[in-house]
Specification:
alpha+beta, single chain, globular, 126 residues
Length: 126
């Protein structure tokens, strides 16, 4: 269960499967670092452009989770959110200094979409 969505990009702490929902504040100025090997991977594999992936970080609501399962060599995160065209994406990324390095992007799975929509409803109630 999330805390109420406050609009400040922060989430209350709770645990869900292999992901930890936690307090995460993105830098004020968001800079994306695209690895040469990953630049075209998401377009070829999932038909998601880099620009479309970046939109998720600016569009609300979005939810950032710790990806504990894949944080062996460096801390990784996942963000659930929507693009300008309302496409629901799951993005795995890491923070390097003040830059966001996107590792992979894909459409949300059915369970992720249900959880995302549930959290949107719970966090937008007045």
């Amino acid at each position: 269960m999330f805390g109420k969505y406050s609009g400040n990009r922060a989430l209350d702490i709770c645990i869900c499967r292999q992901y930890t929902y936690g307090v995460r504040i993105l830098p004020e100025v968001i800079i994306f670092e695209w690895d040469k090997g990953n630049r075209d991977k998401n377009v070829l594999k999932h038909r998601i452009t880099n620009k479309e992936a970046e939109e998720v970080f600016f569009n609300k609501p979005n939810f950032i989770l710790d990806d504990v399962k894949h944080s062996l060599s460096e801390r990784r995160h996942m963000i659930w959110g929507i693009t300008d065209k309302k496409r629901k994406l799951s993005i795995f990324f890491t923070m390097r200094k003040d830059e966001i390095r996107i590792i992979s992007v894909r459409d949300m799975h059915k369970k992720e979409r249900r959880e995302y929509e549930k959290q949107v409803q719970e966090n937008t109630k007045i």
